[in-house]
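Re: that chain you flagged

S.,

Sorry for the slow reply, it's been a week of failed gels. I finally had a moment to sit down with the sequence you sent. For the record, here it is as I used it:
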Amino acid sequence: MLLTRATEYALLSLDTIRRSEKPIGAEQLANELCIPKSFLAKILQNLARAEILESKKGAQGGFILMRDVDEISVREIILAAEGKAPAVFDCTQYAATCPNGSIGTCSISPFLATFQNKVDDFLEGLMLGDII
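Prediction finished late last night. Pasting the structure tokens below so you have them in one place:
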């Protein structure tokens, strides 16, 4: 799976929120980052559900980080933003055209599983603080 704009927008938003001394609303973030507000609002809600952000209500409301940037993995950000874990290669997309009809059990499956595990471990060990 390629990472989409959702992950890009999540990372940009988290960087802006981290630098702010007060909660930032979705509209202000959307304007600052030139991101469609409705799309960004969904991403921010997903980050809040994943307990990466906290949503403050009221006139001075907005979003703040729930944890330190060194406690938030890039993998969990991707999972929250994309709605699914990053996949190196998803054989199920090609079930109808699989050359030998053995999804997940072919000769390259062990390589793909090892590769996926390495990517997962890397993203889990890479913290937001490492990239911003």
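What I noticed first: The mean pLDDT is 88.

Talk soon,
D.
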